[in-house]
Amino acid sequence: MDHHSQRGTIHTGLDQGRPSPFLFLSSLLLLLLLLSSCDPSTLSTSSKNGTQSRTFTGSSTQPITYSINASDVLIRTLYGGGLKGSLSLSPQLSIYGDGTYILGQDQQGKLTTEELQQLLNTLVNTYGLLNFSRQRFSDIQDENATFLELAFNGKQEEFTYGTFGDSQASAQDLDEYHRLEKAITTITETLKGPTHLYKATAVSLLVRQTFSPDLRKSLPTWPLSDFTLAQAAVYECGAVPPDETSQNAETACLKFVIPSHAILLNASQVQRIQKALQGSEGDFTDPEQGLYYHVILRPLLPDELSRKTLAMFGSNQEIFRGVPLLSGKVPPVPSPTAS
Prior knowledge:
This protein is an alpha+beta fold. The protein is built from 7 helices and 17 strands. Strand 6 and strand 7 form a beta hairpin.
């Protein structure tokens, strides 16, 4: 057999009965494809309208699609809602599409693609959160609860986990309640990796008028000319109503409940306020009006800047609602209406 005939024989796999490498690789590829088609957590990645997403399937669910963008929240928990609850300036935790997670507004970590996928698969397939018959598990409105938000298949799912079971709960309700508890615990335990300080790219201003300033130290005056503290406080919390029977007319805004608005600051404004406060929270005085204001500089989370909405939670809330974030001129204080 000449050289050309021998090479042709190898190509067709007929050389002394030995299998062709080509046929072997083809068979191996076919086997891998068959195996992958049986994997209940098969992944696929796609891009539509500039949004990167990933899809996985489970043994008992339809395909689940979620964003893998760094500014899109997949999982978030908030705590509060009770009638006597306290104000939470930020979520407990936020997990984003690229695996980044932020604890409160301070610490940042990162899940690998495999860790994130395992967590999502556990929530959807092991605990079956998307197939619950109810989403609110809280019998006592006075008490705080944990609010879990999930973003799958282009929509938001919200669950409430509080004190539950005092009323006539069905066996299915109790089963789902305990599965929700395990899901929240799993989320928390998954975020045990190394973290570092979260550095926000933008900061918002929260202001309320206060009648109990810390007068043990000299209070600074407002360093900005762009708008006054009165403008900011009324825009965010509304005007303080007259109180003829008490010298403490403070409202619950930014003490127990969320404000109606927040204000986005530029870098120069942030620097001047921080310099005056020597920190990120404190009281200012308005000597001309004889008034005092409490100021908080609240760092923005990655999704909040694009949505122009702060994620906060206060007392007397049954559902989550974001705080609209103003980027622009602060409105003047409205003139009092004639009675």
